[in-house]
Amino acid sequence: MKKKNIRNQPRIITPEFCPFCKSGEEPDYKEYQKLAKYLSDRAKIYGRSRTGVCARHQKKLSTAIKRARFLSLLPLTPSLK
């Protein structure tokens, strides 16, 4: 199997500090506009390495997104255009 050349792939720049720790607030399912920026265009939750969120807030973030999906505030699947 051929190895991929990592050097030619674009780098994803991640923030150094957790935005939730920095602002002093917790992710909440009622603020679905803020939660939407942690979803991809395919409605998948971005990982910690991509968003820069700490482990504690990543767990709370995924729970908040799942609650917002259950209440139909966020999409379960990508929307068709």
Proportion of beta-strand residues: under 5%
Number of strands: 0
Mean pLDDT over the full residue set: 86
- Give the helix tally: 4
How many angstroms separate the termini? 38 Å
The helix/strand order is HHHH
Structural class: mainly alpha
Classified in CATH, the superfamily is: Ribosomal protein S18
- Shape, please? flat
Query: Which CATH-level-2 architecture?
Result: Irregular
Helical coverage, percent range: 25-40%
Present the secondary structure layout:
Blueprint: H1 19-23, H2 32-35, H3 48-51, H4 55-70
Brief descriptors of the model:
81 residues; mainly alpha; 30s Ribosomal Protein S18; 36% helix
What does this structure look like?
This protein has about 80 residues and is mainly alpha-helical. It has one domain: Ribosomal protein S18 (30s Ribosomal Protein S18, Irregular), CATH 4.10.640. About 35% of the residues lie in helices and about 0% in strands. It contains four helices and no strands. It has helices at about 20-25, 30-35, 50, 55-70. It starts with 18 loop residues before the first helix and ends in an 11-residue tail after the last helix. The mean pLDDT is about 85.
